[in-house]
Amino acid sequence: MNRQGPQATVGEGEEAVPLPASGNAGGHGMPEPLPKARYARRTSDEGTGTMAGVALIVCAAVLLSIIATAGRLLVCRAEAGGAADMAALSAATALLDGADPCQAASRVASGYEMRLLSCVILGESGEDVAVRIAVDTQVPLWPEIAAQARAGPVPCD
Predict the structure, then answer these.
(1) Cα 92 to chain center, whole Å?
(2) I want to staple 134 with a disulfide (CB 3.0 to 4.6 A). Which of 25, 142, 146, 153 is the partner?
(3) pLDDT tens digits, residue range 98-135?
(4) Whole-prediction pTM value?
(5) How big, in percent rounded to 5, are the helix, strand and coil portions of the chain?
(6) For residue 83, what is the enclosing H or E element?
């Protein structure tokens, strides 16, 4: 028996050439099995963690945008309410002094960088003034917020 390894069959006029060794210890001509890859198979779930992470970030961004928008609207509402109170008090004082109450209310509103929507003299004796003021919110779906206030003398009875 030849110890050089397995021999190929030869035809007429050819020489026998040894086959390359398989590299295994037994030399039986069988190649060694390849080691199994740890993650050889790809499944349909590959990449879902990334997509879930992206979806979570998008949801957080949308939630923060909604909270910021609601906060902006609440701040605008409070500013409009304060400006309307001041405009109504100014208008009532101007009315008692004999000046134009709506012009006084308009000056106060423009001082707060707001618009006077309406100014009405009310009451049985015509001494109360009701004003309505609007402020721009800079929010696309809710462009302005309005507030109203009423002021006038209070009877001392």
Answers:
(1) 44
(2) 146
(3) 899 999 999 999 999 999 999 999 877 778 999 999 99
(4) 0.63
(5) 40, 20, 40
(6) helix 48-97
DSSP secondary structure code for residue 81 in this structure: H
pLDDT for 6-54, tens place per residue?
555 555 666 655 555 555 555 566 677 666 655 555 566 777 888 999 9
Cα–Cα distance list, 24 to 1, 3, 29 (Å)? 19, 15, 8
In a domain, 93, yes or no: yes
Question: Does residue 142 form part of some domain?
Answer: yes
- Judge whether 85 lies within some domain: yes
User: Residue written as tokens 């879930």?
Assistant: 52
Asked if residue 42 is part of any domain, the answer here is no
Number of compact structural domains in the chain: 1
Cα distance between residue 120 and residue 115, in whole Å: 15
Which single residue is written with the structure tokens 């721009």?
136
